[in-house]
């Protein structure tokens, strides 16, 4: 044979050996992945399957992830501020104002102190509310807002707040009878006016007098009679 022929035969043999080695070692490596290896048998016992190194590492990863998920803190439930009405439906709104005297302003810190002394609670919509004693979930009997838009009290800047007046508003139906709600709101307005050295005005922004108070009481008595629940066992006929 010529030298060229011998060289070609040598190259072919070398390529065959290389290809065979690749196939052999490739099968050996792939075949071992994911298989359970037999655990050495104890004396008189039977061998137990064990996970391969790759499978054990994978299982450990899933276990660590599960533990981490269990340790994540649950989100805190949203806290409901007091003073939200239980229904958006209403028939009427009664309004009173506590206004500063001429050339004066009501100051934020003074309003907060007066509201606390009048039994009000700061809450929903960032305004003050008079709640039913022991039953705050029933919603506000009446609320107190700032007459300057947007009507709320920013407690972060309450020291700088100055306003000409605050508004008391009673929305009917209320969580108590209408007359009882008025008899709660009107004295609270008078109390805050005294504490703030202000004056109480009616919904038309006139000084609240006895005649106007008596007229409102009569209207609310009629409202309560009209909206009273029928006695048990009797149906309402149309």
TrEMBL record:
Domain ZipA C-terminal FtsZ-binding, first and last residues per copy: 90-220
Domain of life: Bacteria
Keyword Nucleus: no
One biological process term in Gene Ontology: division septum assembly
Entry similarity comment: Belongs to the ZipA family.
Region ranges (Disordered): 31-62
InterPro entries found in the cross-reference section: Cell_div_ZipA, ZipA_FtsZ-bd_C, ZipA_FtsZ-bd_C_sf
GO annotation, cellular component aspect: cell division site; plasma membrane
Keyword Membrane: yes
Protein's name according to its UniProt entry: Cell division protein ZipA
Localisation per UniProt entry: Cell inner membrane
Alphabetized SUPFAM superfamilies for the sequence: Cell-division protein ZipA, C-terminal domain (SSF64383)
Pfam families the UniProt entry points to: ZipA_C
Recorded topology in the membrane: Single-pass type I membrane protein
């Amino acid at each position: 044979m010529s030298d060229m022929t011998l060289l070609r035969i040598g190259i072919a043999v070398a390529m065959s050996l290389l290809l065979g080695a690749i196939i052999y070692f490739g099968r050996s490596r792939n075949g071992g992945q994911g298989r359970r290896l037999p655990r050495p048998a104890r004396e008189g016992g039977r061998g137990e399957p064990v996970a391969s190194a790759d499978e054990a590492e994978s299982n450990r990863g899933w276990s660590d992830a599960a533990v981490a998920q269990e340790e994540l803190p649950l989100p805190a439930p949203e806290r409901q501020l007091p003073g939200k009405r239980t229904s958006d439906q209403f028939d009427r709104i009664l309004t009173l104002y506590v206004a500063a005297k001429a050339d004066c302003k009501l100051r934020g810190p003074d309003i907060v102190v007066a509201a606390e002394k009048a039994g009000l609670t700061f809450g929903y919509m960032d305004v003050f509310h008079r709640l039913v004693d022991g039953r705050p979930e029933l919603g506000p009997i009446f609320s107190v807002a700032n007459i300057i838009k947007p009507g709320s009290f920013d407690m972060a800047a309450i020291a700088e707040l100055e306003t000409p007046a605050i508004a008391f508003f009673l929305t009917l139906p209320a969580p108590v009878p209408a007359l009882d709600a008025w008899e709660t709101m009107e004295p609270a307005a008078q109390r805050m006016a005294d504490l703030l050295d202000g004056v109480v005005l009616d919904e038309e922004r006139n000084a609240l007098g006895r005649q106007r108070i008596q007229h409102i009481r009569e209207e609310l008595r009629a409202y309560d009679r009209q909206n009273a629940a029928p006695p048990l066992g009797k149906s309402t006929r149309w």
